[in-house]
Amino acid sequence: MEQPAPIAQPTVRPGLRGRLTIPVLAFGGILMAVMQTVVVPLLPDLPRLTHSSPGAVSWTVTATLLSGAVLTPVLGRAGDMYGKRRVLTAALLLMTVGSVMCALSSDIAVLITARALQGAAASVVPLSISILRDELPPERRGSAVALMSSTVGIGAALGLPLAALVVQYYDWHTMFWLTSALGAVGVSAVWWAVKESPVREPGRFDVAGTLGLAAGLVCLLLGVSQGGQWGWTGARVLGLFAAAVAVLGLWWWQQLHTERPLVDLRLVSRPRVGLSHVAALLTGFAFYANSLVTAQLVQAPKATGYGLGLSIVETGLCLLPGGVTMLLFSPLSARISAARGPRVTLALGAAVIACGYAVRIADSRDLWMIILGATVVATGTTLAYSALPTLILRAVPAEQTASANGVNVLMRTIGQATSSAAVAAVLVHHTSPVGGVPVPTLHGYLLAFTVAGIVALVASATALTIPGDTGRRGSRRAGSGTLDTRDEALEGA
Hints:
Structural class: mainly alpha
Oligomer: single chain
Number of strands: 4
Strand content: under 5%
Number of helices: 18
Strand order of the largest sheet: 1-2
């Protein structure tokens, strides 16, 4: 049986390339998040621009969600096997090709296909975090991982106002030409500045496991994302959920009986890994409601009595302070994790998210309070999201970090998709007519905040149940690989 590649002690690469490794990987993460959000300002106008229905246009978002959920664990596993830089470059290249396709076409089928290709970029963050573990010495790894985790929120906060400005003053294809150029820069920069990791887990790629996971996730997430439109009790949605249960059940059995599985479920079943994934799902749910509800609330017409009637550009600027906060607070997350352990950081972050929703419930009429509450939620998200990969890094073998972090990101994605469906269900059931058009009531928004806050508290409690550090030093076994002394600096007291 092939053995994992030996783990060398990491050192900082000399010269300009070594100094740019972290900034280049962070740029890739920000670019991925920007690419996911730039289509949002276009959604109201895309039916007219593409001569298609609103239902068809919604697939420009759904396709990215589905492909990202499927490809993240798959590309993570491929990175562990064939080289993380190689797979990271391929993911960024697919994202860029998708952007070029969007820039060249107004056909809705082409746009949906292109957006599905861009979903591959969801694997950028877990692959980059795995590269940082392999390449950085312990004293630099914690802050770098925290920054990498924060790029998702930073890019989302930057992407919305940027896209809105471009759409407002230029042809909408210009936005995709701009992102294509940025994508080309990202691909070139990663290939030039990032060294290929020597840490590998050789073996045969699990094709059956990949197909099974893809089929199960598509059924699950398609049902969750389209349930509001198709009807939660309709035959299509119930059939999708039943198929998801059946396919994922078979997939689980197959993974347990495969020598080189796509996902090491025995590793996932360990409390330190499994509970981290549960916390990721809950945190993803709690975080995503903030962006969804805030954007709708501030754009609601003033005739509602609570809405501010802001434009999409102004809405993006309201979310911008949250992105800046995520950038500023990522070093703090690393310091807390180093001093107290990442599970404490995760629990604290989820509790801060709940506090942010308490602010939103207290006052969602004044703009400054809305921005304050959204920024507090973003701060908590920074702490939580920065702690999650650190928990995974310390709990899995070095040669499985990309695939394990890919699964963790997948759980966040499922949480976000569930959050979107839950928020939509709450708002649909709490509407009142304004000018003959049903508009969500303030009570509906406050109820959505309440649900998200409760989920955040559950995430905080879950984090505290994650087993703490054992205090053992030196080399120790976990699964089939070895966790070496490089991870000791990441362990808390």
